[in-house]
Amino acid sequence: MQPDYQEVAEQLFHIAEKTRYVSRRTIEGRLNSVVLSVVQAIDSGAASDAARQIGKEGTRQLQAFLVGPPELWVVHMRVHNLSSKGLPFRIGNVQLSLADEPCLDEMQRPGHAVITTMKHTDHEKEMIKVKLREWIDCEFGGRTVAAVEVNALDQAAAKRGALDTLRETLDVLNYCRSVLPYPVRSWVYGDADPMPRRAASLLYRGSQEDPQGFSMPFENIGTLGKMDLEVLADDDAGRASVTQILAIAGRSSRSEVEEKVVTAARVAGAALTRHRRDHAFLLNVIALESLMLGEQRNEIPGPLQYRLGLRCAHLLADKVDERRRIVSRVRAIYDRRSAIVHQGKSDVTESEVDAAEWLVHRCLQRILARPEIVAGKSEALRQWFEDLILA
User: Fold this and answer.
1) How many Å from the N-terminal Cα to the C-terminal Cα in the chain?
2) Bridge partners of 77?
3) Quick check: is 229 in a domain?
4) Contact partners, residue 278, CB within 8 Å, separation at least 6
5) Nearest residue to 133 (alpha-carbon basis) of 164, 154, 104
6) Is 219 within 8 Å of 199 (Cβ atoms)?
7) Is 87 in the same domain as 120?
8) What is the tally of helices (H) and strands (E) in the chain?
9) Last residue of a domain, which of 16, 50, 67?
């Protein structure tokens, strides 16, 4: 491969990763077609200048394809552990529904329209429609499903974008459910998420030769029941932060601070479905950092741990003793984070996970209580933190 061709290929891959509208496979396929057209031109006796022009034109068309307007795709996927209560429920580009007969009919309708345009006999078209409905009924019938609207240039990119969008939406829903009064472990899952399961153990006390007793404990890993979205829809005063987060998450355009709020809720929600405590702990620390920090390292002086501790302390407490306790809690959390990330430790206690969850939830609540800050830029949030510390 010539260096200039390699450079073009890398530039095109970079465009694809930036936009997320097109898959790498599509770029490779189209780029290979350009190369093949050049090779065929050379094999047919074309002059080098003519072959080079064919390559340039093919590359230009590919670049135009990449920056062109994407198409709308609607991707249907199953959602697990979601109660039918409160459905249908829409948040942003995600519609959650029960796949009953009217829903299945609606899922089938676009397929019928496409089949009608096919170059087959009427009998063949009817057979294809029957097969489509049988498949839809088998895979989705009676289940809770999501219809996700995404923009993409090819099927693979559409599916990837829909999976990402659905996962983010379910993570936000899980976080919102966790902060409501009397929460139960009722998380929702997508097909690609770690599913709940039952873990069993067999324990013998004593040696193999002289056993003193045995036990057969088991525990449910993950959810205990199905999530009821009617609970989230109740907008009484105790659910103010949930109502705000759902409203922000459903917007197509968000302020910089709103984006931080949704990111923190999403990552904290993802932590709830992780079966390993060290994974859940790290995700909560990431959620806290994304909400309370977020500046480039060279923008604000001082260690991250020190800055995070000060901001949490002044945001959550008024008295000096209370602030000291919060700074100490943040320091302990960061020490555990460093042990996991830099030393490969995995011994995280339940109380450490709870402490990180508590900080994320309390900081989100305090920030959401200031709508003028939430609607603004990250710089305004940084300045607000500075004012709190200097006051």
Assistant:
1) 63
2) 146
3) no
4) 340, 345, 346, 347, 348
5) 104
6) yes
7) yes
8) 15, 9
9) 67
Report pLDDT digits (tens) over 53-77: 887 888 788 777 877 788 899 999 9
Q: Which of 330, 223, 220, 348 is nearest to 279 (CA)?
A: 348
pLDDT at residue 316 is higher than 80 = yes
The tokens for 87 are 């459905």
Same structural domain for residues 270 and 163? no
Residue 1 pLDDT exceeds 50? no
Instruction: Please check whether residues 37 and 100 belong to one and the same domain.
Output: no
Could you read off the pLDDT of 112-127 as tens digits, one per residue?
999 999 999 999 999 9
The number of domains in the chain is: 3
Among 62-71, 273-282, 350-359, name the most confident range: 350-359
- Domain assignment of residue 196, yes or no: no
**In the predicted model, is pLDDT for residue 162 greater than 50?**
yes
Handedness of CA 366, 370, 371, 375 (dihedral sign): negative
The single residue listed with the structure tokens 């599913």 is 195
**Predicted TM-score (pTM) of this structure:** 0.83
The verdict on whether omega for the bond into residue 196 sits within 30 degrees of 0, i.e. cis, is: no
